[in-house]
Amino acid sequence: SLSAGLDLPGRFLFATLTLMTLIAILVFIEEAVYIYRKIPSSKRSIIIWINAAAPVISTTSCIGMWVPRSTMFTDFTAGIFFSIVIHKFLMMMIKECGGQKVLLRRFENGRFTISTGPCCCCCPCLPHVPITRQTLFWLKLGTFQFAVCRPVLIFLSIVLWTNGDYILYNLSPKGPALWISCFIGALTLFALWAVAIMFRKVRILLKCKNIVPKFALYQFIVILNHLQTTIINMFATQKIIPCAPPLSPTARGSYISQQLLIMEMFLITVISRVVYRRKYHDLELPECVAEEPEDKKQTP
To answer: What's the confidence (pLDDT) of residue 41?
Structure first.
């Protein structure tokens, strides 16, 4: 078994990482209870979903660390969950503005800047798009397609893997892993692009609701869960990470990635508790804010 093959420092490391995962789960449960009691029901489920991203990734990484053969399933589970969280984060920004109707009234003559990352940051010549119900629909569709298509592609990957046709580290053009990974990567970029467009427009309005640190935490999860894991897997595939018997380079790379994710998601869980632990109130309508000084002047 895995635990029998570990030396004393290895057992201490595994025990410490497992304890960090348990603490992250307890912190999330406590935060979920607070959110359920203090936050309006219209935002409750969305914020709980977003806060659950780091603990879920930490838990799946911990399971994959103890049970190496489950790594593919745990990675896929974390990937499916986070694809839903990306859509939830976009919806949270709309909810924090008071909903779609209030957002459209607030930015009635405004425009979206689509020349932003990760897709079009190098294209400043792109036109600004008017903020209408239709453009909001396309932004929501940009994240919703990712929440729907990625689970379908992951299910297809598992079916091919059980038949021996899908090999995660085989990036040959003849194999399905390369094409499925590229397609998922393209869907990911479009989803992140939609969130970035919305954030760029509402970040000033929602500054009082800590939207900047919330977006930073969301970006850290994206980078660590996707980019960091991809880089480590590439190093392992190219055997830059040496083997350490009985672990092959790919298995050792998977262990390194999982252990790093547990520590990083633990920190993000604790920081999220600080950022999200406050009461939420709907923003005042723009008309009310504009008319308030006039009402005060008319009051004797």
So the answer is: 78
